[in-house]
Amino acid sequence: MSESTLLVGGRVFTGRRYCEALLIENGQVLVAGSEAETRRAAPTGVELRSLRGALVLPGLIDAHFHIADVTRSREGLNLGGITSVEALVEKVREWSSEHPGRSVVGRGWDPERSASRAWPSRRDLDRASPDRPTVVLHVSGHAGVANSAALAAAGIDRASNDPVGGRIGRDADGTPDGRVFESGLRELIGRPDDLDLPAPAALRRTMAWAATFGLTTLGAMSAAPEEALALADLSRSGKLPGRVRVYLHSNRWEEYFRVAPSAAGPAGRFAVVGVKAYTDGAFGTRTAWLSEPYADETGTSGLPVAAEENLRAVIAAAAGRGLAPALHAIGDRAVEFALRMLEPLGRLEHAPARVEHAALTPPTVFAALARVRPALVVQPGFIWSDHWLAQRLGAPRTRWAYAFRSLIRQGHLLAGSSDAPYDPADPWRGIRAAVERADAEGRSANPTPEEALQPEEALGLYTLNAGIALGEPALGLLEPGSPADLVLLGSSSLERAIAEGSASVQETWVDGHPVAHRRGGEMV
Predict the structure, then answer these.
(1) Strand pairing category for 47-50 and 18-19
(2) Which terminus, N or C, of the chain has the lesser number of Cβ atoms within 10 Å?
């Protein structure tokens, strides 16, 4: 016996067009059209649901989301609200006291939130937690500050050389000051014990939380094999509240396939799609690789973090297994390098090659972009979060930061994402930033009005375009044959929903069934 639901009495945006009603059968969209058309096609006994004038959208997709790291941030030491070094020291001290016997790892600390923009040192963390390894990770995830115990555990001392693709911060006499950038973090990450994989139940809680924003599919980026296997196990047991498309971390990606399960549960819930690799760092840590020096630190142009021969080998091996490469590239020089690495691939059969972030794309990279045409997986929320960018790059260069309209005009596919936990996970924040550019305080990394998107275009980053970037366009649509992944809003128009943000979300459905709904004003 089929399960059928008919949604009427409102508006439906399919991802391509508006219509009146939606008929769902056995977890798929059967008809999207007029109310009369859907009623004619509905079987006897169909469940009738009145939308009461509200709007239905395709389920939202975050194409670049770090599930394990979001879980660690949500359930561990979160420093996102800290605005001074002293406040950070006190927060770390408090956490350390409440969690005896464990290494301490804090996440989300952002020096740009403080007036001084000062970084803590190892001595500050020694005051907070003198007796065990302690690491505070920069909000970007591309740098950290370690205390003396963590540095010692990692074997980092005055005699240590900067690692390839990384850097160690130092005092005037050459003694490590606690700061570690890019590849140097590998010696610290994995040693503190709370960087171990979160429990499967915790991963599931993160996915259920994401569903409260209207997210039905997550692109799980830089996944360790253990994370991918845990997500596959959740899928096989029927416990995934949404869909996961995994991009394995390039440093251990092949390990997954040595023990990969033969089956992963309900069709369409879990898949390994690609391999993620890095070419540079981040603007916040001045490790994004630029063609010219930073405006506020002219002694550096950032940091390339991948050897060309190694990266080519990873890309070729992954493509040989049918996996799409996804290359992190933020600075313009990194974008050019990533495009050069991808150009020999041509068109891939399953999912497209991707450039993650593509944050700085001046006209000098246009020709290479036109030749290669990867999917560009962008983070519109960075427009607001990186409001200090003009000081880093200078105003002329920031004109080409997050230049979404210019890229779309050139025919490029832009998919939306948050990069959570390195920026807020709420997709409505990103949609609004793509439309409005400046935040409520008038701040923006690049306020150029010509780069703003229309509401349906901004939504498209998180629906149809994101599905294409994952190799599954049907995931971002509510057209016949598409999975019935959808968001029921409390708003009658997309413009109003964007203004209200995630508060407008009333229900989130996957395969035609609710996985999150609003109760007593809260999404659960």
Answers:
(1) unpaired
(2) N
What is 70-195's CATH topology?
A: Diaminopimelate Epimerase; Chain A, domain 1 (3.10.310)
* The two structure tokens encoding residue 185: 């973090």
Alpha helices in 45-84 (DSSP H): 67-75
Does the structural domain 4-59+481-523 have CATH classification 1.10.3660.10? no
Tell me the C-alpha distance between 291 and 302, whole Å: 9
Residue spans of the domains in the chain: they are 4-59+481-523, 70-195
CB 40 within 8 A of CB 23: no
User: The tokens of 186 are what?
Assistant: 């590998």
CA 373 to chain centre: 21
Residue pLDDT tens, the chain, 524 long: 479 999 999 999 999 999 999 999 999 999 999 999 999 999 999 999 999 999 999 999 999 999 999 999 999 999 998 999 999 999 999 999 999 988 899 999 999 988 888 999 999 999 999 999 999 999 999 999 999 999 999 999 999 999 888 999 999 999 999 999 988 787 676 544 445 688 999 999 999 999 999 999 999 999 999 999 999 999 999 999 999 999 999 999 999 999 887 666 778 999 999 999 999 999 999 999 999 999 999 999 999 999 999 999 999 999 999 999 999 999 999 999 999 999 999 888 889 999 999 999 999 999 999 999 999 999 999 999 999 999 999 999 999 999 999 999 999 999 999 999 999 999 999 999 999 999 999 999 999 999 999 999 999 999 999 999 999 999 999 999 999 999 999 999 999 999 999 999 999 999 999 999 999 889 99
- HEC string of 100-118? CCCCEEEEEECHHHCCCCC
